[in-house]
Amino acid sequence: MASLENSVVVGVDGSDASIGAVAYAANTAAKRRIPLLVVTTYSMPAALFAEGMVPPQPVYDELEKECMPIIDKAVETARRISADLQVSHAVVEGNPAKVLIDYSRTAKVVILGSRGLGGIKGMVLGSVSAAVASHAYCPVVVTRADTDDLDQSGPVVVGIDGSEISAKATEWAFAEASARNTRLVAVHTWMDPQVQAAAAGIALTEDDWQQLEEQQRQTLAERLAGFSSRYPDVTVERVVTRDRAVRALVEQSEGAQLVVVGSHGRGGFTGMVLGSTSRALLQASPCPVMVVRPQVHS
User: Fold this and answer.
1) Cα separation of 161 and 186, whole Å?
2) pLDDT tens digits, 43-70
3) Partners of 291 in the beta sheet?
4) Are 248 and 216 in contact (CB under 8 A)?
5) What is the pTM of this model?
6) Which residues, 6+ apart, have CB-to-CB distance to 113 below 8 Å?
7) 122: buried, middle or exposed (CB in 10 Å: 19+, 13-18, 0-12)?
8) C-beta separation of 110 from 136 below 8 A
9) Whole-angstrom Cα distance, residue 122 to residue 79?
10) Nearest of 46, 44, 68 to residue 57 by alpha carbon
């Protein structure tokens, strides 16, 4: 298996969605000034392993050769985005999700497309993209089918909730905004206390609401302070709202280049580890989504 440490890895399968992912990945690699590795996979027919048989090398060679048109199209797409980009490729036998998770151990970021029916309501997260986003060792960006036509002048959006993984996501969001020379929209949502207060027989005054709003704004400012000093070139727009996190992030992501969110998880390859917000955002976001998991390397 080829390996390019500190590179952008993009998974391709020849579909329109994966070509859009290549375009986005090439743009990301060019802005980060790091190499791009294009990866595709194939599966050896199970019948060839019958009774302990080991398939001869020419069979592997032929299957790899059949994958080359997919690679060639992807490389051509990447070159169209950036002629100076360092591009290499790998054709690997195996499960595509496991292969990409393997590459995520050394990659800077893994990018792949999401299969779907089209439209936000009909979008269905593909099994490979869901598995990789759930278990990768580096951030994973899942693009949409129309990503190739995405306006690359929009902001980077990040959801901030105060958790440790949210801080990691915020750091990645600042780095992406800096690399893309664009502004960062930091979104912090908070639960409406009206129901709880009513249940306790407490009537909130206008002053109470203003105080709560101010507390949330101060909290967001504190969570951004350290990052703003490290990335002075990034202009930050703060959004504090009483709303569901997913709805607020989807709204702010209209026209964005990327939305970044942290995802809690238990680790390991089996079991569902995407948090509810990150999974819902992968389904509904109008722009590519970066999922940052707890064990990601920097």
Assistant:
1) 10
2) 877 666 666 677 778 888 888 899 999 9
3) 140, 261
4) no
5) 0.85
6) 11, 15, 17, 18, 19, 20, 21, 126, 129, 142, 143, 144, 145, 147
7) exposed
8) yes
9) 32
10) 44
